[in-house]
Specification:
Blueprint: H1 2-9, H2 23-32, E1 34-38, E2 41-47, E3 56-62, H3 70-92, E4 99-105, H4 113-130
Parallel strand pairs: 3-4
Antiparallel strand pairs: 1-2, 2-4
The structure holds one RNA strand.
RNA sequence: CAAGUAGAUCGCCUUAUCGCUUUUGUGCUGAACUUGUUUCAGUAACGUAUUAAUUUUGAACUUUAAGUACCAUUAAAAUGUACUGAAACAAGUUCAGCACUCAAGAGGAAAGUCCGAACACCAUAGUGCAGUCAUAGUGGUUAACAGCCACCCAUCGUAAGGUGAGGAAAAGUGCAACAGAAAGUAUGUACAGAUAAUGCUGUAGUGAAACCAGGUAAACUCUAUGAGGUGCAAUGCCAUGUAUACCAAUAUUAUAGAGUAGCACGCUCUUUGUUGGAGGGUAGGCAGCUAAAGUUUACUGGUAACAGUAAACAUAGAUAAAUGAUAAGGAUAUUGACUAGAUUUUUUGAGGUCAGUAGACAGAAUUCGGCUUAUAGAUCUGCUUUACAA
């Protein structure tokens, strides 16, 4: 029942506001951002401020070189988004520091939801370990 | 029944939980605007009732005694009127956020970007010559096409059908395996004939073809017809801001250079600094943006492509790019095992149960009509050949 009550409080949303859309910011992210890797995932992050007041803005990317067809790319991106959506409240629920994220998929092979989910958790744990203590306000 | 051939259709389904994009409506919160009411303050060369004073006459009525009602000037002037500002309240509109809610949400090829259009913007000063690209039987169809349909011809196939790179070889240039002396600025060998003589004439042999010949145009070429360019990242608007293309003034430099798709002629333009004016592009937002040569059905005309008429239907609009994830179940195909042993007949093995496996190619991006390519599997129809039966 405790497990259930957690779910009542948390909001597993990933709407337009939380997506990384600005071309400028993405460019800045790739040039100035730092990276954390949990193969086949890589998180590029940048401490920044968002105009609309949201805390996290996240994008997802798969290289066209590694996955040629649009269907394969879409499939992986959807899985990444889904994994991000479900894991975000577990790690960043109380965070107040604003970040821009970009999650890359590095492998040439396909994947499943289960594997992606597991890797996403590793990735976030790594990220939380890495960032300085004073910035960390989440539990 | 088997093999084949042509065409058409479909290309997983259901439920639950958590989400995404766009919409419908409701509620709440916030902001802006409009209207009304109330209160307060201010302004006014607005000014009423009323009060006080002055003038007591100009004008009107009844009457000739006066009266009635009004008016003039000055001062005060509550309330009021108009405008302005502020606050509160109410209503409405718009926008934003949040919550709930209604509805919808990838394809037959959405793909390749290969043709043809719609739509948008740019260019429009040419003429001659040369050149580039596309198309190519005949007729029809269409908004248009290199598409489609019909027919003719050629060719492949036993056939149903398939394919066509189907204009011109008497304008010119080139090319040609094998065989052959030789495939063209050639004339060998043998025999016969003619002649002053010969490389003259005929026959034989090779080959598809042996001389004023023929093949080849998926060789150049010629003929006929057509072709301005760039694509929704077009284009328009919004807010912000300034490089410098632009304009004006002023000082200064050159007759050469640049553009006009290749050349010639022709045409157009002109360097740098300062001051002033005006004002891009990118990124962001909004529009363009989905009702269109629409889809389905029926009938009519036409061999057909297609056209016409009538009825019904409302059907994605994202932008680092929504249409998903997870779980359970079902259907389908297939493999194995077990079962069943069905039937006019088959080298017999329909059907049932359990377990495993499989589901392809592929993701809208301004919109249509085509073509091309990829595609597991399923269904239906026409026809051909062979065999069997009647």
């Amino acid at each position: 029942m405790a497990w259930f009550s957690i779910f009542v409080i948390m909001r597993f949303k990933y709407s337009k506001k939380d997506k990384l859309k600005s071309k400028k910011l993405i460019e800045q992210l790739f040039t100035e951002g730092k990276a954390v890797t949990a193969y086949p995932l890589r998180l590029i992050y940048l401490n920044t401020e968002h105009e609309d007041g949201s805390v996290l803005k996240t994008g997802v990317s798969v290289s066209k070189r590694l996955h040629k067809t649009a269907v394969a790319r879409n499939r992986i991106k959807r899985l990444l988004r889904e994994a991000y959506r479900l894991n975000k409240p577990l790690y960043f629920n109380n965070s107040s520091t604003a970040y821009a994220f970009m999650i890359l998929y590095l492998s040439k092979d396909g994947t499943t939801f289960e594997a992606t989910d597991r890797k996403m958790k590793q990735l976030f744990q790594k990220f939380l370990d890495k960032i300085p203590e004073h910035e960390k306000t989440s539990t």
